[in-house]
Specification:
8 helices, Glutaredoxin, alpha+beta, Peroxidase, domain 1, 4-stranded mixed beta sheet, elongated, 2 domains
Length: 176
Amino acid sequence: MAEIIKEYGTALFMLAREKGAQREYAEVLGEIQKIFNNNPAYLLMLSSPAIPVSERLKAIDEAFDGNAPCDVVSYLKLLCEKGRIEGFNESLEEYNALLKASERVFTAKVTSAQALTDSEKEKLIQKLKKTYAGDVQAEYSIDESLLGGMIVEIDGKIMDGSVRRRLQRVKEVISK
């Protein structure tokens, strides 16, 4: 089901792109996600086969018609009709990934042995922006087992500049 639900997110993104409303739809979808997360019973009701589809669709209309673009409301209704509304979050992840790619926004996962200073973070972000010719957002974490240096994962690539990795390479050379 994962691939199918991603296709729904892709289809909505393509529709939004045709209308030049990618960012607007993303914001509305984010608000809907908050509603679903804060009211899990609502999402359960929308996915319940015990409740007639017509009633579930009516609930979507009552909640979102006039408060969200009609394409987004139709999207929610389609997910509900096809029994895929529980995959909403996953489809939204796909939508947001496509939005980031279209806007050339990259997310870098930065793992360092110790917390980076604001200056170090800024230098890293500037270098990544230059390398990837786009905007870069970073998620930072600390892993003391690195001993020093850092690992940056961005756009499917891993740059391992950790001391742990360097020591591992030295060990490999020595053991040959």
